[in-house]
User: Which sequence fits this backbone?
């Protein structure tokens, strides 16, 4: 067995281990760390943050109780779009936070699962559900516009990278 074939097999096996419940657990752990740091700094949670957290928890429960997100690419994509919506809501706190970077993680998964369509979903989802709401919340000042553009660009480039790798390894 060639090295390339072994790597392709390892990639496929690694991506199948990242089923929606595992992905949701990873997101929840990272959000819990953010929430603990946010609370430790005596910052109040906005209603937007709480709404995003409820959306993320609801999506996580769905992935645990229903086999659909693990079996259907469409249902899995819906879970990831809901995750992007939750991230977009949780970004809107008075002092700002780093939760928006979780959109990059979701974009990686979209690229792996849906390849070219995942890149498009990652781009549109990040722009419409993460960047645009934060610009509406914080205003279109240079600093916030820069953050929105960098986040959307980074998420899209990461989705392109994983989509290309998934396509190349699937062809082997």
Assistant:
């Amino acid at each position: 067995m060639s090295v390339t074939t072994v790597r392709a097999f390892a990639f496929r096996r690694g991506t199948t281990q990242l089923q929606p419940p595992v992905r949701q657990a990873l997101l929840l752990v990272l959000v819990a760390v953010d929430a603990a740091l946010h609370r430790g700094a005596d910052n109040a949670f906005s209603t937007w943050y709480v709404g995003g957290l409820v959306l993320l928890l609801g999506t996580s429960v769905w992935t645990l109780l229903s086999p659909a997100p693990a079996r259907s690419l469409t249902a899995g994509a819906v879970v990831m779009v809901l995750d992007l919506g939750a991230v977009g809501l949780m970004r809107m706190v008075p002092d700002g936070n780093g939760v928006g970077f979780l959109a990059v993680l979701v974009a990686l998964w979209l690229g792996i699962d849906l390849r070219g369509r995942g890149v498009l979903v990652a781009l549109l989802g990040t722009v419409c559900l993460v960047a645009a709401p934060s610009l509406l919340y914080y205003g279109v000042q240079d600093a916030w516009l820069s953050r929105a553009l960098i986040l959307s660009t980074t998420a899209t480039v990461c989705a392109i990278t994983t989509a290309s790798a998934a396509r190349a390894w699937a062809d082997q």
User: Anything to note?
Assistant: The chain has one domain: 16-171. The first helix runs from residue 3 to 17.
